[in-house]
Amino acid sequence: NGRGFTVEPAGVRSPDTVRGHGLPAIRARVHQLGGTLTIESAPGEGTVLSAAIPLAPTALTALTAPEDPA
């Protein structure tokens, strides 16, 4: 709906805030994979989550290696 939400520093929240498991779970999973999670939100502008997860060297090689024509 484009309302966005206020991003609070880790570990800080008001007593009346309902806390779910979604964002902490995403942040933990991205961190486990060696990546970063960025949250951009502004009232009236909506919210954007960006996860950057590095490819494993073997996966990168498989994606960029030329195919064997044989």
TrEMBL record:
Entry's Gene Ontology molecular function annotations: kinase activity
InterPro entries the record matches: HATPase_C_sf, Sensor_HK_TwoCompSys
Region spans: Disordered:
1-20
- Give the record's keywords alphabetically: Kinase, Transferase, Two-component regulatory system
Q: Name one GO biological process term.
A: phosphorelay signal transduction system
PANTHER family per the UniProt record, alphabetical: NITRATE/NITRITE SENSOR PROTEIN NARX-RELATED, SENSORY TRANSDUCTION HISTIDINE KINASE
Give the protein name, as stated in the record: Sensor histidine kinase
Species for this entry: Streptomyces sp. SID7499
